[in-house]
Amino acid sequence: MKIVVDTHTHTLASGHAYSSLLENAQAAAEAGLALLCVTDHAPSMPGAPHFWHFANQKILPRFLHGVGLLRGIEANIINPAGEIDITPQVAEHLDWILASFHEPVFRPADRETHTQTLLNVIQSGRVDALGHLGNPNFDFDFERVIKAAAECGVVIEINNSSLSGSRVGSAPRCEDIASLAKELGARITTGSDAHFAADVGNFTSVKALLDYVAMPEELVVTANAQRFLAFLLERGHHPIPEFSGMTS
């Protein structure tokens, strides 16, 4: 399966990543990507940038090295109410909002707490995708959450870094999540979770998993640039005129 959008990448601004946006864009071009989402960690994460970093993304060009840039964020889920750490005023100007559990921000609790938290995140309508759900520190009811995501139009991330060992114990859980997403008709997004430019657009493990579970191509929003942009419009984001000619 061809994947042309990387929806989860970090720059030096995240505090524990090692490449610039220019370097990431160059790597994205070399990987053959059409679109690259810039998703630095939101302010609650230790070492993350101030909210001004996200509000000021409007100055970024829409293309670098021929790759379309999407102004985004990896927001932190901050409490069981499903709130995230970015204001609606800043979110209004972003193209893409990914939300994830992170141990320094949300202390791992029990399965039911995690499940209800994720349901609240989905039902808030404030996020487009749920990130690296395979993390075993945040167990949850896969069926309830994935069914809710499908019903509410929130996509489930399959994270290459999780599959490659960054979150020990994630791989078998990601397989179960992907299989259930296929069964329930939940759509999938693909993120490298790159913290170094060489990993941008690296979907080796993601592709292997999607092939293994025979994921239908039409459920993968990142398999086609037009499909991904149509998804963003569906989520209520503003149209991006500079990308109107994209066909791949």
Automatic annotation (TrEMBL):
Binds 3 Zn(2+) ions per subunit. Signal peptide: none annotated. Its cofactor is Zn(2+). InterPro entries: Phosphatase_YcdX_put, PHP_dom, PHP_phosphatase, Pol/His_phosphatase_N, Pol/histidinol_Pase-like. Keywords: Hydrolase, Metal-binding, Zinc. CDD domains: PHP_HisPPase_Ycdx_like. GO terms for cellular component: cytosol. GO terms for molecular function: phosphatase activity; zinc ion binding. Pfam families: PHP (PF02811), PHP_C (PF13263). Belongs to the PHP family. Zn(2+) 3 binds at E74, H102, H132. Zn(2+) 1 binds at H8, H10, E74, D193. Zn(2+) 2 binds at H16, H41, H195. This is Hydrolase. GO terms for biological process: bacterial-type flagellum-dependent swarming motility. Residues 5-79 form the Polymerase/histidinol phosphatase N-terminal domain. It comes from the Bacteria.
